[in-house]
Structures are given as structure tokens and as C-alpha cells.
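Appendix B, record 7
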Amino acid sequence: MTTERAAAGCRVSVVGEVDCSTAPRLTESIDAVLATGPAELVVDLAGVSFLDSAGLHALVTAHGRAEQQGIRMRVLVGTRAVLRPIQVTGLEAVLGVEYVEPGAGSPA
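C-alpha cells (predicted):
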């Protein structure tokens, strides 16, 4: 998990699986970014191969915090394994999900 900061906002990039053992780290990273008050937060999940309910909870919680602070949050996904649980739970529009081609680079 990496965090990049730029004038326009911050990006938290995740690689691997987001499950009950890694979701708390994602939450900590996002909370640290939100504490700085960026204009925009991008959660880049293009490198994620698996997303479970703990990961969904982390994203929904982060979205709520960002919204309360007036911070725009975008979620980038690059695989069906990540997109599908988001779609099934009806969170695609809520989280501001954008599909990016794997390996093509994620838009800022």
C-alpha cells in the first residue's frame, strides 16, 4: 500500500488482496490522508486481486468520512474480481467507482 500526495489531492494505491487481515491497514492509510484535508482522495484498487466484505466496509466508511469533510473520493478498479462485489452490493455509484484498464496506468 502506498500513498502519493499532490497539489490536487492524494492517492492511496493498493496491491494484492483487501480482506479482513489487510482492510484495517487500508483504513489507517485512508484516515491518515483524510486528516490532511485534501481536495480529492483517489483509492486506486487497480492492483487488487480480491476484495471481501471487510474491504467494502473500509471503502464505505472512508466514503462517509470524506463526504462529511467535503472531500471528493474516487475508487479506481481494474479487475472484475474487485468490481463485481462492489456492483452486487449496489455501491458502484455511491463510491464513485471508475474502471481502468489493468496495466494502462490509472488516471489521477
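Remarks on this record: The mean pLDDT is 92. Strands lie at 2-5, 10-18, 40-51, 72-77, 97-99.
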